[in-house]
C-alpha cells in the first residue's frame, strides 16, 4: 500500500512537471511577461523611484531645518574658565548643549522651481517607462507573429511532402509496370528531396524564431518554450476609415514618447528659471538656543559666598537664545550665473527642436505605417489570387500527368509554383496582420490578435 501511494505521488509529480514544461504561451501572456520581467524596465522603474525621492528632497528644502548639538569635554592644566573667561589651571568638566534652526525665506524662487522641476521629472520618468513598455509590446508581437508564420509554413511544407509521397508511391508503381519512364521517378524523388530540405529549413526557422521570442521574454529554457498552436485569420478592422492625419492627431494626445519629449521642454524651462534665480538676493532666518555646564563654575550666593551650582541649575542659569535674518546680495561671481543662464537657454532651444523633431518622426512613422497597411493588404490579396491560379494550374497538370500527357519535370514545376504561392500567402498574411496592428497601436488600440 505504501509503495502504491509513493508511485502515485511520483506519477502525479511527473505529470504536473510535464504540463508545466509544455506550457503554450499566448500573445497576451508573452506581452505581459516581457513587460514584467524586462531588465531595462526594472532599471527605469528604479530611475522613477529616484525621481520621486528628488521630489521629496525639493519639498524638504521649503521647510525649516532643526539640528541639536551636544559636547562633553574635560580639561587638565591651563585652560580658560568658561564662566568668567579667566585663565585657570584646574581640571574642569564642561558640557555644552544647543539647538538651531534656519529657513530660507527667499532665494529667487529657486527652491519652488526645484520642486516644480522634480515633479515634472517624476512625470517624465513615468512617460519614459511607459514608452519602453510600448516598444516591448510591439517587439514581442512582431516576434510572436514571426513564430506563427514560420509554424504555418512548416505545416504547409509537411502537407506538401505528404502529397508528394503519395505521388512518389504511385509513380514507382507505374514505372515498375512500364507505364512511365524511370526519369519521371527520378524527377519526383528530386522533388521529394527538395521538400524534405524545405521541412528541415522550416524547422530551423521555427526554432530560431522561438528562441528570438524567448530572448525578448528573457527566458533561457528554449527547449521547453513554445507558443499556443493557434491559427489567426485577418482580424476585422476599420482603421483605414481614418485618415493618416486623424491617426497622427490622436497619437499626439496619448503617445508616451511625445509626452516625454514635451516634458523635457518643460524641464528645460524650469532649469532656465532656476538659473535666472541666481541673479536675485537670498534672505534666510535663523534661531539658536544654547546652554552649558562646568564643574569649575563659581557664582556668589545671597551672602556673596561663591559656590558651584548643580547640573540642572547651571542649564537654566547659562541658557540663551539668538535669532535674526541674513541677506546675501550677489554682486559678482565670475559670470557663473550669466553663463548658467546662457547654457539653460541653449538646452531649452535644443529641447524644443527635439520635441518638434519627435513629432515629425511620429508623423512620418504613421504615414509609412498607413501606406504599409494598404500595400501589404494588396500584397496579401494578390498572393491569394496567385495561389488560387497556381492550384488550378496544378490540378490541370496533375490530370495531364496522370494520363501521361505531361512529364514529371513539368509536373514538379507546377507543384513547386504552388508551394511558393502558399508560402507567399502565409508570409504576406502575417506581414499584413503586423502592419495592421502597428497602425491600430498608434491609434490607441491595444495589441491583440482577436
UniProtKB/TrEMBL annotation:
Gene3D superfamilies, from UniProt?
Outer membrane efflux proteins (OEP) (1.20.1600.10)
Q: What is its main location?
A: membrane
Give the location in the cell: Cell outer membrane
Could you give one GO CC term from the UniProt record? efflux pump complex
**InterPro entries, alphabetically?**
OMP_efflux, TolC-like
* Signal peptide (residue range): 1-20
Q: Which UniProt keywords apply?
A: Cell outer membrane, Membrane, Signal, Transmembrane, Transmembrane beta strand, Transport
**Molecular functions per Gene Ontology:** efflux transmembrane transporter activity; porin activity
A UniProt-annotated Pfam family: OEP
Q: Which family does it belong to?
A: Belongs to the outer membrane factor (OMF) (TC 1.B.17) family.
Know the name of this protein? TolC family protein
Provide the species name: Flagellimonas ochracea
